[in-house]
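RECORD TYPE: inverse folding
INPUT: structure tokens
STRUCTURE:
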């Protein structure tokens, strides 16, 4: 009989351990859901904050350029010099140049600015004027420039 009592105790201990493990997993799952909710809500605030005030909404400028083949390296070097100064400007969120993998002479300049005022000030900087002067004869055809704003602002 002493043996069966010991087995009951062992069974009870095993059941308690299983319940404890399940409770830990339950609490861990709840914590993950709560944390995910916090991350998603702050992400949502960030996404919509670019549109809350039209005078301070982000502006994206995309500029497609076709560079003459003999100037591809020189163009990339000139852009890199300008970028080093541009990314330090107040209001610059992102400033990059992308080259087509299919045609090495096709480039996309993508600029993101905190607002229209920051973009306008960038247009007056010495380093941008220097880039424009250095590269004015490097292009093959006209450029395609488009400006975008937060889609929510267009409602």
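DESIGNED SEQUENCE:
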């Amino acid at each position: 009989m002493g043996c069966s009592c010991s087995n009951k105790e062992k069974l009870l201990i095993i059941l308690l351990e299983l319940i404890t493990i399940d409770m830990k997993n339950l609490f861990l799952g709840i914590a993950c859901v709560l944390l995910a909710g916090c991350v998603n809500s702050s992400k949502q605030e960030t996404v919509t904050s670019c549109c809350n005030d039209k005078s301070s909404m982000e502006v994206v400028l995309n500029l497609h350029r076709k560079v003459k083949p003999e100037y591809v390296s020189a163009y990339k070097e000139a852009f890199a010099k300008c970028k080093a100064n541009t990314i330090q400007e107040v209001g610059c969120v992102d400033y990059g140049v992308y080259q087509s993998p299919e045609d090495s002479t096709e480039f996309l300049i993508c600029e993101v600015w905190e607002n229209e005022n920051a973009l306008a000030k960038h247009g007056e900087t010495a380093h941008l004027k220097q880039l424009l002067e250095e590269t004015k004869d490097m292009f093959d055809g006209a450029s395609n420039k488009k400006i975008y704003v937060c889609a929510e602002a267009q409602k």
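NOTES: The mean pLDDT is 81.
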